Amino acid sequence: MRIDLHCHTKKVKTGDAYTRNVTKDKFFQKVIEAEVKIIAITNHNQFDYMQYKEFKDVTEGYCDIWPGVELDIIGKADQKGNCKRGHLIVIANPKNVELFNTQVQELVNDEDVNTFQIGVKKVYETLGKCDCIYIPHFHKEPKLSDEDIREQLKAFVTGKTDSIRTDTELSFDIYVSETDYALIRYADSLCERLNDAGADVQIKQYSGTMLRSRAVSGKYEAFLSESDLVSTDALENADYIILDSAEMR
Length: 249
Fold this sequence. Notes:
This protein is of the alpha/beta class. Helices cover 31% and strands 24% of the residues. α6 (181-196) links the parallel β6 (171-177) and β7 (200-206).
């Protein structure tokens, strides 16, 4: 059974892609294509109760929809006064959705979703009554920055290095079209090399249509695709590497 506990269904922040805005019918179509049986809606700093009910009604009998939110968290200040920031996914027991809706509204309190940030303690105090699970969206200490990780992966994929620093957990999935057999073979080889270097990487195969849609909307951490399937023009907010066939041998 497939479970997705991190699903965006609305463009909330200024930097969010417009493709995150989905209708209830489009949402149901994507759920069926992905064969997901439990899915949590976790938009940034916002819970849309009306949308939740619409999506729950249209998927009734096929999958379970759980109420959630992805919050901007501010941590304790270091010796220089700098505060660490990260994301925290909070998912509530569906039986408590009405209370969860009320408590999220109280927590965010009509603040600008682009600048909203809050401490973990306040989150627990406000949402703890909703029987929630909490999924921190950050790397363990001592952590590498996202930029450092991206640069390491680029160097590894292009053959400039055969090692990856593993003082932080590096775990992700590589997505590839289920009908692109050449890329699947390359993905298997790349996955094996990454795992041998100390990472935890798995290959996931989806239809070309779903791969393109989710890639453009920023759903994947890493994916492989021919340029005919996903144009680089559609990846303005993503890091990508262009390889020719010789570099992939």
